[in-house]
Protein backbone atom coordinates (compact mmCIF):
# COMPACT_ATOMS: atom_id res chain seq x y z
CA UNK A 1 0.00 0.00 0.00
CA UNK A 2 1.25 3.45 -0.92
CA UNK A 3 1.44 5.80 2.02
CA UNK A 4 -1.16 8.52 2.35
CA UNK A 5 0.45 11.92 1.83
CA UNK A 6 -1.71 14.78 3.06
CA UNK A 7 -2.74 17.36 0.49
CA UNK A 8 -2.90 21.14 0.72
CA UNK A 9 -6.28 22.88 1.20
CA UNK A 10 -6.36 26.68 0.84
CA UNK A 11 -9.42 28.47 2.28
CA UNK A 12 -9.68 32.14 1.45
CA UNK A 13 -12.04 35.02 2.03
CA UNK A 14 -11.32 37.97 -0.26
CA UNK A 15 -12.91 41.27 -1.19
CA UNK A 16 -13.67 42.00 -4.86
CA UNK A 17 -15.75 44.24 -7.09
CA UNK A 18 -19.35 43.37 -7.90
CA UNK A 19 -18.56 43.07 -11.63
CA UNK A 20 -16.48 39.98 -10.88
CA UNK A 21 -18.59 38.69 -8.00
CA UNK A 22 -21.60 38.43 -10.35
CA UNK A 23 -19.74 37.06 -13.40
CA UNK A 24 -20.59 33.36 -13.15
CA UNK A 25 -19.70 32.66 -16.79
CA UNK A 26 -16.35 34.41 -16.50
CA UNK A 27 -15.55 32.43 -13.36
CA UNK A 28 -16.52 29.20 -15.08
CA UNK A 29 -14.24 30.03 -17.99
CA UNK A 30 -11.41 30.79 -15.54
CA UNK A 31 -11.85 27.52 -13.64
CA UNK A 32 -12.17 25.44 -16.81
CA UNK A 33 -8.97 26.98 -18.14
CA UNK A 34 -7.11 26.29 -14.88
CA UNK A 35 -8.37 22.71 -14.71
CA UNK A 36 -7.12 22.16 -18.25
CA UNK A 37 -3.77 23.91 -17.92
CA UNK A 38 -2.99 22.24 -14.59
CA UNK A 39 -4.05 18.86 -16.02
CA UNK A 40 -6.65 18.21 -13.37
CA UNK A 41 -9.60 15.89 -14.02
CA UNK A 42 -13.16 17.05 -13.48
CA UNK A 43 -15.72 14.44 -12.42
CA UNK A 44 -18.68 16.78 -12.11
CA UNK A 45 -19.66 20.34 -11.24
CA UNK A 46 -22.44 22.60 -10.03
CA UNK A 47 -22.81 26.30 -10.86
CA UNK A 48 -25.78 28.12 -9.36
CA UNK A 49 -26.68 31.82 -9.66
CA UNK A 50 -28.68 33.53 -6.92
CA UNK A 51 -31.26 36.24 -7.50
CA UNK A 52 -28.92 38.60 -5.64
CA UNK A 53 -26.44 38.27 -8.52
CA UNK A 54 -24.05 36.18 -6.43
CA UNK A 55 -23.25 32.61 -7.31
CA UNK A 56 -21.97 29.38 -5.86
CA UNK A 57 -19.98 26.65 -7.55
CA UNK A 58 -18.47 23.31 -6.59
CA UNK A 59 -16.24 21.37 -8.93
CA UNK A 60 -15.41 17.77 -8.10
CA UNK A 61 -12.00 16.65 -9.32
CA UNK A 62 -10.47 13.21 -9.14
CA UNK A 63 -7.85 15.01 -7.05
CA UNK A 64 -10.47 16.60 -4.74
CA UNK A 65 -12.50 19.81 -5.13
CA UNK A 66 -12.77 23.53 -5.77
CA UNK A 67 -15.61 25.68 -4.50
CA UNK A 68 -16.55 29.33 -4.42
CA UNK A 69 -19.41 31.37 -2.99
CA UNK A 70 -19.71 35.01 -3.92
CA UNK A 71 -21.54 37.68 -1.93
CA UNK A 72 -21.80 40.84 -4.05
CA UNK A 73 -24.07 42.29 -1.35
CA UNK A 74 -21.05 42.16 0.99
CA UNK A 75 -18.33 42.69 -1.64
CA UNK A 76 -16.64 39.39 -0.91
CA UNK A 77 -16.17 35.73 -1.77
CA UNK A 78 -15.19 32.56 0.06
CA UNK A 79 -13.01 30.21 -1.98
CA UNK A 80 -11.61 26.70 -1.42
CA UNK A 81 -9.19 24.59 -3.37
CA UNK A 82 -8.04 21.22 -2.08
CA UNK A 83 -5.98 18.67 -4.03
CA UNK A 84 -4.84 15.36 -2.67
CA UNK A 85 -1.31 14.14 -3.18
CA UNK A 86 -2.30 10.59 -4.01
CA UNK A 87 -0.24 10.14 -7.17
CA UNK A 88 2.02 13.20 -7.02
CA UNK A 89 2.60 16.34 -4.95
CA UNK A 90 -0.10 18.77 -6.08
CA UNK A 91 0.65 21.55 -3.57
CA UNK A 92 2.09 23.84 -6.26
CA UNK A 93 -1.05 23.37 -8.31
CA UNK A 94 -3.16 24.39 -5.31
CA UNK A 95 -1.14 27.60 -4.89
CA UNK A 96 -1.26 28.28 -8.62
CA UNK A 97 -5.04 27.74 -8.78
CA UNK A 98 -5.60 30.09 -5.87
CA UNK A 99 -3.20 32.80 -7.11
CA UNK A 100 -4.80 32.86 -10.56
CA UNK A 101 -8.29 32.98 -9.06
CA UNK A 102 -7.39 35.87 -6.75
CA UNK A 103 -5.80 37.71 -9.69
CA UNK A 104 -8.81 37.21 -11.96
CA UNK A 105 -11.14 38.58 -9.28
CA UNK A 106 -8.68 41.42 -8.59
CA UNK A 107 -9.29 40.34 -5.01
CA UNK A 108 -7.93 41.67 -1.75
CA UNK A 109 -7.38 38.95 0.83
CA UNK A 110 -9.21 39.23 4.15
CA UNK A 111 -8.32 35.85 5.64
CA UNK A 112 -6.43 32.86 4.25
CA UNK A 113 -5.91 29.46 5.86
CA UNK A 114 -3.53 26.79 4.59
CA UNK A 115 -4.51 23.37 5.93
CA UNK A 116 -2.46 20.25 5.22
CA UNK A 117 -4.77 17.26 5.50
CA UNK B 1 -26.97 46.32 4.12
CA UNK B 2 -26.98 43.46 6.59
CA UNK B 3 -23.60 42.78 8.11
CA UNK B 4 -21.64 39.77 6.96
CA UNK B 5 -21.42 37.22 9.77
CA UNK B 6 -18.72 34.61 9.20
CA UNK B 7 -19.87 30.99 9.04
CA UNK B 8 -18.36 27.86 10.52
CA UNK B 9 -16.39 25.46 8.29
CA UNK B 10 -15.40 22.09 9.75
CA UNK B 11 -12.64 20.16 7.96
CA UNK B 12 -12.08 16.63 9.17
CA UNK B 13 -9.92 13.65 8.33
CA UNK B 14 -11.17 10.45 9.93
CA UNK B 15 -10.46 6.74 9.77
CA UNK B 16 -13.28 4.33 8.95
CA UNK B 17 -13.94 0.79 7.73
CA UNK B 18 -13.94 -0.02 4.04
CA UNK B 19 -17.60 -1.09 4.15
CA UNK B 20 -18.57 2.54 4.81
CA UNK B 21 -15.82 4.13 2.73
CA UNK B 22 -17.16 2.36 -0.36
CA UNK B 23 -20.89 2.85 0.34
CA UNK B 24 -21.66 5.77 -1.95
CA UNK B 25 -25.41 5.12 -1.91
CA UNK B 26 -25.52 4.89 1.87
CA UNK B 27 -23.62 8.16 2.15
CA UNK B 28 -25.96 9.83 -0.30
CA UNK B 29 -28.93 8.66 1.73
CA UNK B 30 -27.30 10.00 4.90
CA UNK B 31 -26.57 13.42 3.36
CA UNK B 32 -30.03 13.72 1.79
CA UNK B 33 -31.60 12.94 5.16
CA UNK B 34 -29.45 15.50 6.95
CA UNK B 35 -30.15 18.17 4.33
CA UNK B 36 -33.87 17.56 4.77
CA UNK B 37 -33.92 17.35 8.56
CA UNK B 38 -31.71 20.43 8.97
CA UNK B 39 -33.83 22.31 6.42
CA UNK B 40 -30.93 23.11 4.14
CA UNK B 41 -31.47 23.79 0.44
CA UNK B 42 -29.58 21.86 -2.20
CA UNK B 43 -28.77 23.65 -5.45
CA UNK B 44 -26.86 20.80 -7.09
CA UNK B 45 -24.61 17.85 -6.37
CA UNK B 46 -21.97 15.52 -7.76
CA UNK B 47 -21.36 11.94 -6.63
CA UNK B 48 -18.56 10.04 -8.35
CA UNK B 49 -17.32 6.49 -7.62
CA UNK B 50 -13.73 5.54 -8.36
CA UNK B 51 -12.59 2.14 -9.60
CA UNK B 52 -10.79 1.75 -6.27
CA UNK B 53 -14.18 1.63 -4.55
CA UNK B 54 -13.71 5.07 -3.03
CA UNK B 55 -15.91 7.97 -3.93
CA UNK B 56 -16.07 11.74 -3.95
CA UNK B 57 -19.09 13.99 -3.53
CA UNK B 58 -19.77 17.72 -3.46
CA UNK B 59 -23.16 19.11 -2.58
CA UNK B 60 -23.86 22.77 -3.24
CA UNK B 61 -26.30 24.34 -0.81
CA UNK B 62 -27.74 27.82 -0.87
CA UNK B 63 -25.99 28.08 2.52
CA UNK B 64 -22.64 26.83 1.13
CA UNK B 65 -21.33 23.28 0.61
CA UNK B 66 -20.58 19.79 1.86
CA UNK B 67 -17.91 17.57 0.37
CA UNK B 68 -16.33 14.21 1.08
CA UNK B 69 -13.57 12.14 -0.45
CA UNK B 70 -13.07 8.56 0.69
CA UNK B 71 -9.88 6.55 0.43
CA UNK B 72 -10.64 2.90 1.26
CA UNK B 73 -7.08 2.08 0.17
CA UNK B 74 -5.89 4.18 3.12
CA UNK B 75 -8.83 3.54 5.45
CA UNK B 76 -9.77 7.20 5.70
CA UNK B 77 -11.91 10.08 4.45
CA UNK B 78 -11.62 13.85 4.22
CA UNK B 79 -14.86 15.69 4.93
CA UNK B 80 -15.94 19.35 4.78
CA UNK B 81 -19.10 21.13 5.82
CA UNK B 82 -19.38 24.89 5.59
CA UNK B 83 -22.58 26.89 6.11
CA UNK B 84 -22.80 30.64 5.91
CA UNK B 85 -24.68 32.63 8.52
CA UNK B 86 -26.33 34.95 6.02
CA UNK B 87 -29.90 34.69 7.29
CA UNK B 88 -29.38 32.93 10.63
CA UNK B 89 -26.62 31.35 12.72
CA UNK B 90 -26.05 27.93 11.18
CA UNK B 91 -23.09 26.89 13.34
CA UNK B 92 -25.13 24.32 15.27
CA UNK B 93 -26.24 22.78 11.98
CA UNK B 94 -22.60 22.49 10.89
CA UNK B 95 -21.73 20.65 14.12
CA UNK B 96 -24.81 18.46 13.82
CA UNK B 97 -24.06 17.57 10.18
CA UNK B 98 -20.49 16.63 11.05
CA UNK B 99 -21.39 14.63 14.18
CA UNK B 100 -24.00 12.58 12.34
CA UNK B 101 -21.61 11.95 9.44
CA UNK B 102 -18.83 10.79 11.77
CA UNK B 103 -21.31 8.54 13.60
CA UNK B 104 -22.65 6.98 10.40
CA UNK B 105 -19.13 6.18 9.21
CA UNK B 106 -18.26 4.92 12.71
CA UNK B 107 -15.24 7.12 12.17
CA UNK B 108 -12.22 7.85 14.37
CA UNK B 109 -11.00 11.41 14.03
CA UNK B 110 -7.41 11.96 12.93
CA UNK B 111 -7.46 15.74 12.48
CA UNK B 112 -10.23 18.30 12.74
CA UNK B 113 -10.09 22.02 11.98
CA UNK B 114 -12.80 24.53 12.83
CA UNK B 115 -12.48 27.64 10.67
CA UNK B 116 -14.73 30.66 11.11
CA UNK B 117 -14.85 32.51 7.82
What's the quick description here?
The structure is a homodimer of 117-residue chains. Chain A is of the alpha+beta class.
Descriptive notes:
2 copies of one chain form a homodimer. The first copy, chain A, is α+β, with helices and mostly antiparallel strands and 117 residues long. Chain A has a single domain, classed as 4-Layer Sandwich (S-adenosylmethionine decarboxylase), CATH 3.60.90.10. Helix content of chain A is 28%, strand content 41%. Chain A has 3 helices and 6 strands. Chain A has a 6-stranded antiparallel sheet, covered by helices on one side. In chain A, helix 2 packs antiparallel against helix 3 (91-105). The A-B interface holds A 1-2, 4, 6, 9, 11, 13, 43-48, 50, 56-60, 62, 64-65, 67, 69, 71, 73-74, 76, 78, 80, 82, 84, 86, 111, 113, 115, 117 and B 1-2, 4, 6, 9, 11, 13, 43-48, 50, 56-60, 62, 64-65, 67, 69, 71, 73-74, 76, 78, 80, 82, 84, 86, 111, 113, 115, 117.
Summary tags:
6-stranded antiparallel beta sheet; alpha+beta; 117 residues; homodimer; S-adenosylmethionine decarboxylase
Amino acid sequence: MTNYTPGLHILSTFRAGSDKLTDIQGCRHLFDGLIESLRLTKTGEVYHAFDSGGFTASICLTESHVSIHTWPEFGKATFDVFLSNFLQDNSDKVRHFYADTLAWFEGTEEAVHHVTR
